[in-house]
Amino acid sequence: VKLLLSRPGAVNSPTTTTASKIASYSTAAVTGYGMTSAAIWTTSIGSASIVNVDCGPVESIEHGSLALTSSRTSYGAEAVFTCERNYTLVGDAKRVCGDGGLWSGKQPKCLFDWCPDPPQSDSTTVTLSGRNAGSTATYECKPGFILFGQKVDKKIRCPEPVLADHAILSVTGNDRAYGRTLIRTAESSPSVQTYKIGALAKYRCERGYKIQGDPLSTCEDNGRWSGDTPQCICKY
């Protein structure tokens, strides 16, 4: 029996065999063609045929259009996607029909293009990667603030420093516009104000006492004073 594959592009290797032998054919060298029956068959089954690979229709996209090259969906055909005005294509702009009968890539989407300015506050700076759909807005807090949630900024301030017995405290740098020094002793009433980051607290002792510990403390960005509260001990 001589096997003849008559469709265009088929690998035709005529082979004479008997009915008890098994003959085989292949389309390995024919890109874009597939077989309608198994690659190995017996002569008693009958003739086989070669068919052109077709990937089928391509899904359309909302707010966009689809164009097929050569108006076909067979092997090698290209599906090209475009979006309407003010919309941005996100995903594969072109999909190709492969020899497996499947379209390459993933179905794209048309997303609304221009994004308005994101919400801002006096305590943040915003950096935009772009204004098209898919762009990001990165928020950073200015010195003295931390990002709290998505919309709320919490202003960081240090409380009134702890004052040991017989100690005298002065705090500078509480106002950015001008330096202000606030002095109080252990006998004075504590104030209810708070201090900005960077404020410097200076400790000294009353006459007859000497300081033990670091006399300087700074308001840090975690809302706490640095170091431990110094003590005043009697010199005699």
UniProtKB/TrEMBL annotation:
Keyword DNA damage on entry: no
Alphabetical list of Gene3D superfamilies matching this protein: Complement Module, domain 1
Tree of life domain: Eukaryota
Domain Sushi: 53-112, 156-234
InterPro entries: Sushi/SCR/CCP_sf, Sushi_SCR_CCP_dom
Intrachain disulfide bonds: C83-C110, C205-C232
Keywords: Disulfide bond, Glycoprotein, Repeat, Signal, Sushi
Protein name: Sushi domain-containing protein
